[in-house]
Write a structure and sequence with these properties.
The chain is built from 8 helices and 3 strands, in the order αααβααββααα. The chain is mainly alpha-helical. The longest helix has 25 residues, at 103-127.
Length: 163
């Protein structure tokens, strides 16, 4: 059965992407749990970025994962409470906090790597469609960098107002 959101088409793209994200996070959490790993999928971008970069400032993490500064700080607080990350002040700029994985966080990454391979395989199978969503996301993100959604709407509005 099709609902109003599905019927609205492109107008509800943000809602549909959020819905898809929630489905992926829910199943992702089930996959971790099935493999004996206590991990929230929402922590993934921070943990993975620190795994790949070792030490990052809060601002660098926010940039790396594409989240707002407050959202990033909220995730970091959760990860610090779980003792998966630690922070220290930068020696050259005491306003800057440098974040890294703790030993517990590094051990967790080691345990998760085989599960990441499984998740990658399952996601590859799931997205293996004629309209591969990863290709589409890359294309849309590139177009967003050229001109934002807001800028496009304003441009269309200006053209409609003139003609």
């Amino acid at each position: 059965m099709i609902n109003a959101i599905d019927q609205s088409g492109i107008l509800a793209i943000s809602t549909r992407l959020q819905r898809l994200g929630e489905l992926l996070r829910k199943d992702g959490q089930q996959i971790y749990k099935a493999h004996g790993i206590d991990f929230e999928p929402k922590w993934f971008p921070v943990v993975y970025s620190l795994h790949a970069n070792e030490v990052l400032s809060v601002v660098e993490i926010a940039h790396e994962i594409g989240y707002t500064h407050p959202s990033t700080i909220s995730l970091l607080k959760e990860l610090e409470a779980q003792k998966l990350v630690r922070s220290r002040k930068d020696k050259t700029d005491t306003r800057k906090r440098l974040i890294s994985l703790t030993e517990k966080g590094q051990q967790l990454v080691t345990e998760m790597k085989p599960v990441w391979e499984l998740i990658t395989a399952a996601l590859t199978d799931l997205t293996n469609t004629s309209n591969n969503i990863m290709h589409a996301i890359n294309e849309v993100e590139a177009r967003f960098r050229e001109k934002s959604f807001f800028e496009r709407a304003e441009e269309i509005h200006r053209h409609q107002s003139q003609g």
